[in-house]
Amino acid sequence: MELLWLIPALPLAGFVILALAGARMPRPLAASIGAGSVGLSALIAVVTAAAFFPDQRAHTQNLWKWIDAGGFSSDISLTLDALSVVMVLVITFVGFMIHLYATESMSGEKDGYSRFFAYMNLFVGSMLLLVLADNLLLLYLGWEGVGLCSYLLISFWYSDPANSRAAMKAFIVTRVGDAAMAVGLFILYKEFGTLRITEVMNMAAAQWSSGSTIAVAAAALLLGGAVGKSAQVPLHTWLPDAMAGPTPVSALIHAATMVTAGVYLIARMHILFTLAPQVRIAVAVVGATTLLLAGISALAQSDIKRALAYSTMSQIGYMFVALGVGAWTAAIFHFMVHAFFKALLFLSAGIVIDALHHERDMLRMGGLRHQLPLAFWCILIGAASLSALPLISAGFYSKDLILWESLASANGSAWLWAAGMAGALCTSAYAFRMVFLIFYGKAQSEASHRIAVHLGLRMKAPLIILALLALLAGFLQTPESLGGISFFSAFISTALPSTPTIGTAMSEGTMQYLSGFLSLLGIFLAYIFFLYNPDYIRNFIRKPFGFALHCFLSSGWNVDRLYDILFVRPFIYAAQTNCRDIINLFFLLVALLHKGANRVLCASQSGLVRKYAFGIAAGAALILGVVALK
Amino acid sequence: MTNIPAEYGLVLAALLFATGLVGVLARRNIIFILLSIEIMLNAAGLAFISAGSRWGQADGQVMFIFILVMAAAEVSVGLAIVLQLFHRLKTVNSDEANTMRG
């Protein structure tokens, strides 16, 4: 327990060392510092979790006073409860797997090897600070640190302007949410005079009535922050573009850090959200909208990483639905399972992309299952877990819990459930579309004949471990009809309340049959349209309507263009108009005046001594004249 | 000893001063400019002496001694500058020493 501070401190120390001396280090040393710091942190996380496990009491470690000025004080203190144990274990462990993989996969980079690991360490360190923070200010520090690192890593290959633009987009779009969140924190501080999470929650529960305006305002502003970081509608547009970074970065952003910060924030502040029923409904609606929008968009993506990005948005949407109906446990459970299979999918997609010499277009792949057996099995397992293949995949257990509670919870509704079911169909369709396009069928480009793959242990081991977890992690929590293991929910119940359920027309077992059927149906549809008879889709896209639909979906419902018209262009127009306005004219005049005066004075500086003497004499005569005539 | 009216001295001082000023403004040769400045200084000195004798005070003569000392100092600095100028530009024409014009 006393080692708690080392968990975020180790990656941060790794960042400092690599940032100061990394460029002069030999590569193996930089790699072992980069991956080793996160690995050690994971080890300490396991030790701490083991110490936490017997009595499960929340433990707070006060490190030092951060700010103490004018009545405001804030500590650097960390707190560990069941929720942060789960988050820390997932972040450090999955983060370590990704670092280990990156030590080998990034070895082809000409420069920036140590810079990469410095940023990655800072990323993991900030995220750990975020989930361990005892007060909201420290949480916000981690929150912004994560945003900064995403900017740095998305533009890792900064020589391409497109990558820098993607990074700026990610930074600016999440900033919109962050601003809302900051205002939310101001409200909480003004009302309660403290930012310690436990105190804020206790005081909110004691002083605010359910549905009161201030509670709704505070919760809605925090939701704004969560929506931005977690890439939910309407602030979701940065995530597909964030694929400009290297693949391990995408894996880290999507699996262990960054996008799950919003889910964590809402789960952590669950008392506040319980006090604001309207906002909680908004959370569920945002989640449902996102999971449908992203799930359908993913069906039309040809870039493998963009397809995965939309899939992340959609899965986070499921978590938001769960949070919205008060199924806190289900949301965190799905977060954990999602971290495993999404990291697995990204890392194995990285192998495919590298093997095909940076080809990311799935339509130009095909027939790769014999050349890349490990990547094939890993993506198959990841896709199975993503599409919640019944019984054998972890995704089935976590997603089923969400679907069931979205219907059965006291706050649930049939609409949310229906959206979730439709999303489940989309999910399995796009997941297996990916598998069929990449690994089955005919090879579509000659690049697939020039495959040269040499995978070392550092890339193989993380894939195999994550694949096992993507299959087995689900058995921590199974529904009553299938064993009724409730290890996970029992563990996390000390931090998050359980979900009250009401009777429904459908039993849980029936719903499992239905969702299992939808999952298999999605796979079958993917098989029909993308493997058995791919010409049907190809012909459909050639028709005007089909082409328009394809463009609409592959651009993510044209939201980018909408925002461009609604916000970006008016803003640029206003800025350009504003720089020619009256007020600016005044300043232009001042500048002009100075320029003119400068020119006159320059001319007077003739360098002729006699003229200067004349100037003195004339000046003296003038003054004497004035004195004499007065 | 007949008294010379103070006005005569002042008029002479004014004439000398004007001569010096014209010399400073009109001559290009820097040595002549220095000489003209000396004339102007002495014109000022003459004005002090005349005024001092008009009021019967010793102050005017004290001021003249001050002016003499200052003129000696000024000439030594001025001549040093002229020497440097000639050393660098090989000329005593002040109009050619205009390299610091704006």
What is the approximate shape of chain A? globular
Q: What is the CATH C level class of one domain in chain B, in words? A: Mainly Alpha
> How do the strands line up in the largest sheet of chain A?
1-2
Structural class of chain B: mainly alpha
Radius of gyration of chain B: 17 Å
Average pLDDT metric of chain B: 89
Give the helix proportion of chain B (percent range).
over 70%
C-alpha termini separation of chain A: 92 Å
Can you count the helices of chain B?
3
The proportion of strand residues of chain B reads under 5%
Which spans of chain B have pLDDT < 50 for at least 5 consecutive residues? Answer: none
Low-pLDDT stretches of chain A = none
- As an assembly, this protein is heterodimer
How many helical elements of chain A? 26
- Briefly note the CATH topology name of one domain in chain B: Helix Hairpins
Count of beta strands of chain A: 2
Could you explain how this protein is built, in words?
The complex is a heterodimer of chains A (630) and B (102). Chain A has helices at 6-21, 27-52, 82-105, 113-132, 136-154, 161-192, 197-207, 213-229, 238-241, 247-256, 261-268, 270-275, 277-298, 304-324, 328-355, 373-386, 394-408, 414-439, 457-472, 487-492, 508-532, 534-542, 544-554, 559-578, 582-604, 609-629; strands at residues 59-69, 72-80. Helix content of chain A is 71%, strand content 3%. Among the domains of chain A are: 279-336 and 346-532, no CATH class; 581-629. In chain A, strands 1-2 form a two-stranded antiparallel ribbon. Chain A has 630 residues and is mainly alpha-helical. Chain A has 26 helices and two strands. In chain B, helix 1 runs antiparallel to helix 2 (30-55). Chain B has a domain at 30-93: Helix Hairpins. In chain B, 15% of the residues are buried. Chain B has helices at 6-26, 30-55, 59-89. The radius of gyration of chain B is 17 Å and the shape is elongated. Chain B is mainly α. The chains are: A mainly alpha (630), B mainly alpha (102). At the A-B interface, helix 25 and helix 26 of A face helix 1 of B.
